[in-house]
Specification:
mainly alpha
């Protein structure tokens, strides 16, 4: 296809796409800072509070691959506009929510809109930028927005929650969404979908998303109603049955949502397992450390936002080229292994944090280790997930590992939050001081997260191998540092 846009309009279009993605990234981190305020205002329990995060992650992960297929069928610009509209309207519903059910339902719709925007934004960037050097620059900008958005999110979350209340973290999306929608109509080209586009695997998306939602629901409620109760066991059995149905559908359908044959490739299978373990650790870190700083250390939302800033700035710096340089020099295994070991060490430090901890000694070192670890390992994990496939299948492979990240984060967060709550409840019943019991539960969750990250590091160093097609990405990666300096 001949690109209909001149150079200037292509870069303006990239800004529009990145602004839309920034809104999605913001909402992933901005919510963590406001969680204690949301819990107090809407009377969430500590275990049910995870649904404010999980409702978003489950629909996001469940519909990420389907969003890309919808773009192939009906046009990427059209789906981008639909995704932005869904996300913006759902943000309004979140901001006006007066009950737990309304907020969780609106967060689920936000996740659906976010999945569509994220899936088709990358496809649009690939369509707009066909030259390797330009594409490398565009992907560098996109990566910086994704990583830098985390920094903006935690800081903005602290400012808005402290000054205007937690509702403002959702309502801030309204003007951004309206601006992106208007500029998209003006700058993004309307490209006809190919006539041979594949059919939708709706059954696969519905079964796998429902299965995971049932599993997480059973886990987060297990502490309250009992792990051996008929409801918990029944929900887990239903989740397992739906997962089996999903696998059967994927084995037979002509255009599967998740082609099972790809998991026969060693690096793809390993990278997806790494993604699940690492996301479980990282999402738990964001969620539980925000609670630790507010409920144990007594930080206000602004202080929590500032506390996350060092880690997010370090991750953003790696996205602008440092990670690409490491991959070009050392391959994919060493950065993944070392990065995840640093992340495990950071979580280990949080697992030692006392009730009377202070920022310099007990928060900042762990934050910085997690920033270095995540920044070092993220791009190599994505490269590993694509290294055994032909370049034409790289987008699908990337979608698979992104889905693993979201699903692993949702299930891992549910498990670790439940473990923390169970530990806190048991100690509180033994007449241990409430603050000590709360901190002990958080420390257990951090320790389990560190073990997840450690397991992912071992897989990265011992099981991954240099991929067949890693070299196909090197010319683009090499341009990333130059792109950053040119900007």
């Amino acid at each position: 296809m001949t690109n209909p846009l001149d150079a200037r309009k292509r870069w303006l279009a990239l800004i529009v796409l990145c602004l839309g993605v920034l809104m999605i990234v913001l909402d992933t981190t901005i919510v963590n800072v406001a969680l204690p305020s949301i819990r107090e205002d809407l009377q969430f329990t500590e275990t049910s509070l995870v649904w404010v995060v999980n409702a978003y992650m489950l629909t996001f992960g469940g519909f990420l691959l389907l969003g890309g297929r919808l773009g192939d069928l009906y046009g990427h610009r059209r789906l981008f506009l639909i995704g932005i509209t869904l996300f913006t309207v759902a943000s309004l519903a979140c901001g006006l929510a007066g009950s737990q059910g309304t907020l969780v339902a609106a967060r689920a719709v936000q996740g659906l809109g976010g999945a569509v925007v994220t899936a088709v934004a990358l496809s649009l960037i690939m369509t707009l930028f066909t030259e390797p050097a330009e594409r490398a620059k565009a992907m560098g900008v996109y990566g910086f927005v994704c990583a830098g958005g985390g920094s903006i999110g935690v800081l903005l979350g602290g400012v808005l929650t402290s000054t205007l209340g937690w509702n403002a973290i959702f309502l801030v999306n309204l003007p951004i969404g309206a601006l992106v929608f208007a500029l998209c109509l003006k700058l993004i080209p309307l490209v006809r979908a190919p006539a041979h586009a594949q059919k939708l695997d709706v059954a696969g998306a519905v079964t796998v998303t429902t299965s995971l939602m049932l599993a997480v629901y059973a886990i987060v409620n297990g502490n309250e109603i009992g792990w051996r109760s008929p409801q918990t066991l029944g929900l887990l059995a239903a989740a397992a049955m739906l997962m089996a149905i999903f696998l059967a559908i994927e084995a037979r359908v002509r255009a599967p949502l998740m082609p099972l044959g790809m998991f026969r490739l060693r690096n793809i299978a390993t990278a997806n397992v790494i993604g699940v373990l690492w996301a479980a650790a990282m999402f738990a870190w964001f969620f539980i450390s925000a609670l630790y700083m507010q409920l144990v250390l007594g930080y206000d939302p602004m202080q929590v936002g500032l506390a996350f800033l060092p880690a997010n700035l370090i991750m953003a710096a790696f996205s602008l080229g440092l990670s690409a340089k490491l991959v070009m020099r050392y391959g994919i295994r060493a950065p993944i292994g070392v990065g995840l070991l640093l992340a495990a060490a950071g979580l280990g430090l949080f697992a030692l944090a006392p009730v009377d901890g202070n920022f310099t000694v007990h928060v900042l070192p762990g934050m910085m280790l997690l920033g270095f670890g995540a920044g070092m390992a993220l791009n190599p994990v994505l490269l590993a997930a694509m290294s055994d496939v032909e370049p034409g299948e790289a987008g699908l492979a990337s979608g698979l590992v992104n889905t693993s990240f979201m699903m692993g984060g949702a299930l891992g967060l549910a498990i670790l939050a439940s473990l923390a709550a169970a530990r806190t409840h048991a100690l509180a019943e033994s007449s241990v001081a409430q603050l000590v019991a709360l901190n002990s539960g958080y420390r257990l969750a951090f320790l389990c997260g560190a073990l997840f990250a450690l397991g992912a590091a071992v897989l990265g160093m011992m099981v991954l191998r240099p991929g067949k097609h890693v070299h196909t990405h090197e010319p683009e990666d090499e341009a990333l540092p130059d792109a950053a300096s040119a900007d």
